[in-house]
Each structure stands twice: as structure tokens, then as C-alpha cells.
Design goal:
It is a single chain. The protein is α/β, with parallel strands linked by helices. The chain has one domain (6-193, 225-235): NADP-dependent oxidoreductase domain (TIM Barrel, Alpha-Beta Barrel). The protein contains ten helices and ten strands. The strands form two sheets. It has an eight-stranded parallel beta sheet. The termini are far apart. This is Aldo/keto reductase. Residues 19-259 form the NADP-dependent oxidoreductase domain. It holds the Pfam family Aldo_ket_red. Keywords: NADP, Oxidoreductase. Belongs to the aldo/keto reductase family.
């Protein structure tokens, strides 16, 4: 229970450890209501992307909630067909317009598009230096992508958002990121519910009077991983946020680590179809 509700990025910016993911939520009322209910429950971190097509609805939800903008942590991402230096600057402005905000808290490169992500990063550095975004980072970057990026970079990414859950415990990548001062963040932290029936998760859920989902999210937090579970259901949002009042023991953490099988929900970054 010693885990604080916020992590501190390498530049001192605080990021809430549990955020709301909005992938596949419909633009308009669904995502607007999801943002409002999450904020009402205590969430202060909302994660979207231009690719999701729901930035406008997220913006409506932000406006409609009773919390000042400066208390919210808003993330969006530049999609693959928007990458390149000038293209990224334009994409950033489009995202800000849709979200209805003047600045972003975190802007991420969605995937490491070969031949483009270094120019894209230069654009993110410009936006960061201009104060238009408080922190910049990447998604789905493996160690070799980060090595290549940092060869010519002025700023080290503050965040790397990757697929991460007990069946895909990317220990080597996590160690690499922490050595470089890069905060790891998990998308699909619950692996879309695929592993809730694992015996160890059911046993620990019973022991702690929690759900398997809460045990998995707590496992992430104790590995110092920021999580953005997706749900538009207020009851599920409440459940996903209620993970700060228990501690998994070290041997329990190891038993969850052992669920690693390499099974992915999404594509491996080296096998992604960047031409699609």
C-alpha cells in the first residue's frame, strides 16, 4: 500500500498510475459519458489517440466534467499515416482542436514506423520545447527502436506504452526502460479478460477479497507500470480504480510473473503491417 497514486516522469511531471483507456469507444455520447463517469470516480488520466476517432468525444467529456483542466492528465498519439516532421506538427494541431484543449500532458508516437519515427520524434521535441506538451514518449517501441531513436535525440522519451500483462511480462524491456528513466505504461493491461480464470489469480482474488482484474492491475503497479484499463461501464471503472488498498507479497508477484507465455493481443512491433 506504499504505492502512490502518481508516478513521476524523468522531467518531474506527475502521471496518474491508473488511467482510462478509450480504444474502440464510439465518438460522441459513449466516450463522453465514459470520461465523465471516470472523472466522477476519481480518475484524472485519460488516454486516447487520433487513430481511435474519438478525440472530439473525449474533449466533450473533459468540458462536461466538474474538474479543472489543469487537474487532468490527457494523452493522445500520432498515428502511422500522420508521421514525419511537418505531418506530425499538423496532426498535433488537429488533435488539440478535436480535444478542445490548448496543451497536452503527454503526446506519443503510436508505432515505430520504419524510416519515419526519428523525424516524428524531432517534431515531438519541438512541441515539447515550445511548451505545447508537458511530456513526450512512444508506444510499442522495443529496445532496438529506442536505441535507434536516441542516437540523434535531444530528449529521451519519458514514456513507452506497450502491451503488457501477465501473459506478456516483458521483463527485459521493462528493465531497459527503467535503466533509461523511461516510464513503462501498459495498454491492454487486463489482456481483455483472457486470463481471469488462471488459478493463481482466482486464488489471490479470493484471499484479498478482490477480483482477478484488480489483482492483475495491482501486479502492474507493483512492477511500477502505469495502467490504462478500458471500460465505459461505471461499475467496472470503479473496480479498476480500487487497487491501492492491498499489497501482493513478493512470492505472489513471482507466481503471476510465471503466467508469462509470450501470448499477444496485438502484433509484435517488428511484425506490424506499417503499409496498411
Amino acid at each position: 500500500m506504499g504505492i502512490r497514486s502518481e508516478a513521476v516522469l524523468s522531467n518531474g511531471v506527475k502521471i496518474p498510475r491508473v488511467g482510462l483507456g478509450v480504444y474502440k469507444m464510439e465518438d460522441g455520447e459513449e466516450v463522453k459519458q465514459a470520461v465523465q463517469s471516470a472523472v466522477d470516480l476519481g480518475y484524472r488520466h485519460i488516454d486516447t489517440a487520433s487513430f481511435y476517432g474519438n478525440e472530439a468525444g473525449v474533449g466533450e467529456g473533459i468540458k462536461a466534467c466538474a474538474v479543472p483542466r489543469d487537474e487532468l492528465f490527457i494523452t493522445t498519439k500520432v498515428w502511422n499515416d500522420e508521421q514525419g516532421y511537418e505531418e506530425t506538427l499538423e496532426a498535433f494541431n488537429r488533435s488539440l482542436d478535436k480535444l478542445g484543449v490548448e496543451t497536452l500532458d503527454l503526446y506519443l508516437i503510436h508505432w515505430p514506423v520504419p524510416g519515419k519515427f526519428k523525424d516524428t520524434w524531432k517534431a515531438l521535441e519541438k512541441l515539447y520545447h515550445e511548451g505545447r506538451v508537458r511530456a513526450i514518449g512512444v508506444c510499442n517501441f522495443m529496445e532496438h527502436h529506442l536505441d535507434e531513436l536516441m542516437k540523434g535525440a535531444e530528449v529521451t522519451p519519458m514514456v513507452n506504452q506497450v502491451e503488457f500483462h501477465p501473459a506478456l511480462y516483458q521483463e527485459a524491456l521493462a528493465d531497459y526502460c527503467y535503466q533509461k528513466g523511461i516510464q513503462l505504461e501498459a495498454w491492454a493491461p487486463l489482456a481483455r479478460g483472457r486470463y481471469f480464470d488462471a488459478a493463481i489469480l482466482k486464488q489471490l482474488a479470493e484471499n484479498y477479497q478482490k477480483t482477478p482484474a484488480q489483482v492483475i492491475l495491482r501486479w502492474h503497479l507493483q512492477h511500477d507500470v502505469v495502467v490504462i484499463p478500458k471500460s465505459s461501464n461505471p461499475d467496472r471503472q470503479k473496480e479498476n480504480f480500487d487497487v491501492f488498498d492491498f499489497d501482493l507479497k513478493s512470492d505472489e508477484m513471482l507466481r503471476i510473473d510465471e503466467l508469462h507465455s509470450g501470448d499477444r493481443i496485438g502484433k509484435h512491433p517488428d511484425e506490424f503491417d506499417y503499409d496498411a
